[in-house]
Amino acid sequence: MTARGIVRVPGDKSISHRALILGSIANGKSKIRGILRSADVMSTAGVLRSLGSSVPDLSESLELGGLGLGGLRAPGSSLDAGNSGTTVRLMSGLVAAHAFTSRFEGDASLSRRPMKRIAEPLTAMGATFEFARGDGLPMTIHGGNLAGISWDTRAASAQTKSAILMAGVAARVPVSVRESHKSRDHTERMLSSMGVHVQTDESSVRISPVASLTPLDITVPGDPSSAAYIVALGVLRRSGEVEVPDVCVNATRTGFVDTLAAMGADVEYRDRVSAAGDDAATIVARPSTLGDFTVEGDSVASMIDELPLLACVAAAAGVSLEVTGAGELRVKESDRIGTVVENLIAIGAQAEELPDGFRVFGDRRPLAGRVRTGGDHRIAMSFGVLGALQGNAIVIDDPDCVGVSYPRFWDDIAGLGS
Asked: What is the rounded distance in angstroms from the CA atom of residue 271 to the CA atom of residue 283?
């Protein structure tokens, strides 16, 4: 890191998951560079290995031999998704198209997260689901011959959409998915690069059957969700600029940076290039004076993972923020609405819960106290940004939980808040 503050964040988590999954069912050898080596992506690698894929140890550059469509094998034991909702939901779509039984397990946090949203469309396609309790894990899927489907998710969920698309590709049947508004589109972009005919509009995607997938040859760009924490520090610190190079700037992922700009932040994109079917660019952030803001409607989906961070940014900047339409935060790794508000109050900020969001009230003051993360990596990193700022004294109860998505987070932010 130079005096200017240059931080290269790890590879994008969403793209890393999909590269391993789709590379495992391609025909031929995929080349993947810059994959995220985090606990969540390792969970996907482990599940794929249990299904017969020869996923190597995750490294800066790896080659993955694909089994072809329909080539996965019945697992000899339960599939452990760890803390990764992406792993269990995307892999559910894939195994539903295979004529064997799979049982998914996860840690305590993942086991509480709802799986009905994927079970409903995959059941309509012909798979059978069994739940040990409620609609969480453990979950057993009896796969087989699936039929094509046209499904309205009535929400915006990239994981639900991707589960259906994965099932359609593996089963060689046409599927279409309509959403309330567009969610992350990495799955359809990657499928298109592998030879699938993909049709999209503002709120729907349709894919046609293919006999095989061509292998991948990609460099995974930096994760914009991880970059958000560095950008936030660049905006909140007292002097100097921060650069975050080679970050994925897919339009469905730039909500946080775009919102900071709308609040008055001095942020910009430089050196835009194409990478892994998505655009990548260097994000530059400089100390800024922010204004009050409201987040609602379609903008929520493009920054759902960064909303806890935005709350912390508002608290640090002494501005008022209102977020609504973000009920999805209730069923993440923690109830992120309740957890964010509880912790903001605990460190001396003013905030309140809403049924589907929260309010933070502008009152710039030093912040101090202990943060209870509930093991949620996004909570730890969001409040870690506050803790890095000069004048604050914040203790994170479980700093190691950041390993789920950004293992070197604490090293990367060291000194940036000064």
From this structure: 9
